[in-house]
Specification:
- The protein is α+β, with helices and mostly antiparallel strands and 219 residues long.
- It has one domain.
- The chain has six helices and eight strands; from the N terminus they run H-H-H-H-E-H-E-E-E-E-E-H-E-E.
- Helix 1 packs across helix 4, helix 2 (23-36) packs across helix 4 (57-72) and helix 4 crosses helix 6.
- It is globular and about 50 Å long.
Length: 219
């Protein structure tokens, strides 16, 4: 998968799951096929992870864990307008300048490639996040805090690691002019569930880029 510790941990987890239940293999093959065949919203797929190479079963596992929680409402979302999409890595200074213009109360710091994330997203007052479903009006306020920020390409396993370790993930994917903040509301997330319980992500249409019923979903 990759040489990172979160990549090795994901490989070990998925390999053990497949050994314990063959149903996992068929489930992940189906998810991977859907990712490749554009059967999931590309906007959200790229938020969960983005890479220039083909998807793997390990990517499918991490994607299903994140996207499944978004659909179930266990992960809440707010979308912050940046005004431009990320530039390639060689133009990091332009990305840093773009992140300086985020609306209040968001403040982004970037240090690209120096640590285990590309930067940090902070908010200095309570903010409201909502469920990313058209049928739900549930939202909640969270206290001031910070989230690891990933810009452009990033491994799905890294996104899952941030969510499970920090409870937050901030993502600014390529080809998107918005930054996504995901908050994992469940206090002790489970790394995996039985695939027989329909843990595979359900296909869904991409959210429309306008203010949702959930107040504060879009900044």
């Amino acid at each position: 998968m990759n040489g990172s510790y979160h990549g090795f941990a994901t490989e070990n987890t998925v390999d053990n799951l497949i050994k314990s239940s063959p149903a996992w293999a068929s489930s992940l093959v189906e998810v991977k096929s859907g990712m490749t065949g554009n059967q999931y919203p590309k906007e959200i797929l790229d938020v969960c992870g983005q890479k220039p190479t083909d998807y793997s079963l390990y990517d499918a596992f991490c994607f299903s864990q994140i996207y499944g929680r978004i659909l179930s409402g266990d992960a809440l979302v707010v979308v912050v307008d940046v005004g431009s999409s990320p530039r390639p890595d060689r133009r990091k200074e332009e990305n840093s300048r773009a992140l300086e213009g985020l609306p209040e109360p968001f403040i982004a710091s970037s240090w690209f490639d120096k640590f285990e994330c590309d930067g940090c997203l902070r908010w200095n007052m309570p903010i409201r996040l909502g469920q990313l479903t058209s049928s739900s009006e549930y939202s909640t306020m969270i206290d001031p805090g910070q989230a690891p920020l990933e810009v452009g390409n990033t491994q799905f396993s890294r996104s899952l690691l941030h969510l499970f370790q920090c409870g937050y993930l901030a993502r600014w994917p390529y080809d998107q002019k918005s930054l996504w903040l995901i908050y994992l509301s469940s206090s002790v997330p489970s790394i995996a569930e039985d695939p027989k319980k329909n843990n595979k992500p359900r296909r869904s249409s991409a959210p429309r880029r306008k203010r949702n019923k959930i107040q504060g979903l879009l900044f």
